[in-house]
From TrEMBL:
<dbReference type="GO" id="GO:0016787">
    <property type="term" value="F:hydrolase activity"/>
</dbReference>
<protein>
    <recommendedName>
        <fullName>BD-FAE-like domain-containing protein</fullName>
    </recommendedName>
</protein>
<keyword id="KW-0378">Hydrolase</keyword>
<dbReference type="InterPro" id="IPR050300">
    <property type="entry name" value="GDXG_lipolytic_enzyme"/>
</dbReference>
<dbReference type="Pfam" id="PF20434">
    <property type="entry name" value="BD-FAE"/>
</dbReference>
<dbReference type="InterPro" id="IPR029058">
    <property type="entry name" value="AB_hydrolase_fold"/>
</dbReference>
<dbReference type="InterPro" id="IPR049492">
    <property type="entry name" value="BD-FAE-like_dom"/>
</dbReference>
<feature type="domain" description="BD-FAE-like">
    <location>
        <begin position="52"/>
        <end position="153"/>
    </location>
</feature>
């Protein structure tokens, strides 16, 4: 099915996303969830969307790092638990490998315009640091991982100095098929959704784009994207890699996922296709 949908992906991105989510939800029902203890639906703010789930390895691990995962949804939709299997597949995968993980919910454009979601990410990171000793993970090794529109919110937190203060410094940033540049171009099937969150003044989009803020001191970043992406997502991920390489004078770790699409890039984690998962775990253990 992926081979059939891939070349046609841009023709109906929303419909194809739904197909992939349904297909991978079925596949992931077979995935093991052993070795993980989950604390669900913990509030980190007063809004109903400001809740998170904490996934901890049950095996004894000496103060593991923690990864906060930020889901996508084109700014106006999406949920940290899109289905019972997605996006928890990412969190189970990490926790089974000795890494604490937090699935973060946040307010959508219908609840709060820019920078509401990034403020939520900041609050979730602050919550994680404040509760690190309670849950047994390392407050000095906090990572963000994001997919699709989630990378716009997480990327603003990670790279924009308005949010990425020294006191909130991350150990690393992981971007999977991320919208790290803001646009309302005709090529973008979610242009109107972008405008719901960021407004219609395109003259502001450059400054609001995470890639705009990359410099030599930007946090260590791993970038991955699929062969068949929502229009321009691959272009913007490649731009992020280029800007990081230019600023730091060294290419960041990255991965191009042949045969995968915008949804399978994240939904396949926890299946037998383990290449991306292993690379992410390696980056968390050795950010660079």
């Amino acid at each position: 099915m992926m081979a059939e949908l891939g070349p046609k992906w841009p023709d109906d991105t929303r419909g194809h996303v739904d197909i992939m989510i349904a297909e991978f939800s079925e596949v992931l029902k077979l995935a093991s969830r052993a070795g993980v203890h989950v604390h669900r639906d913990i509030p980190y703010g007063s809004h109903e969307r400001q809740h998170l789930d904490v996934f901890l390895p049950t095996a004894k691990v000496d103060t593991p790092p923690v990864v906060l995962f930020v889901h996508g949804g084109a700014f106006v939709s999406g949920h940290r638990n899109r289905t019972e299997q997605i996006y928890s597949n990412v969190l189970y995968y990490l926790a089974q490998r000795g890494i604490a993980a937090i699935n973060v919910g946040y307010r959508l454009a219908t609840h709060a315009a820019y920078p509401g979601a990034t403020q939520d990410i900041a609050a979730a990171v602050d919550w994680a640091r404040a509760h690190a000793h309670e849950y047994g993970f390392d407050p000095a090794r906090v990572f963000l991982m994001s997919h699709s529109a989630g990378a716009a919110h997480a990327g603003s937190y990670a790279y924009d100095p308005a949010f990425s203060t020294p006191a909130r410094a991350l150990a690393g940033m992981i971007v999977v098929s991320g919208r790290v540049r803001i646009d309302n171009l005709a090529e973008n099937p979610n242009a109107k959704r972008v405008e719901q969150y960021y407004g219609t003044d395109a003259s502001r989009f450059e400054e609001l784009s995470p890639v705009h803020h990359i410099d030599r001191d930007s946090v260590a970043t791993f970038v991955a994207w699929a062969e068949f992406e929502n229009p321009l997502i691959d272009v913007y991920c490649a731009e992020l890699v280029f800007r990081l390489a230019q600023a730091k004078r060294k290419s960041p770790p990255m991965m191009w996922l042949p045969g995968h699409n915008h949804s399978s890039a994240i939904a396949h984690i926890g299946t037998s296709d383990d290449r991306l998962g292993k690379a992410i775990v390696n980056f968390i253990r050795n950010p660079r």
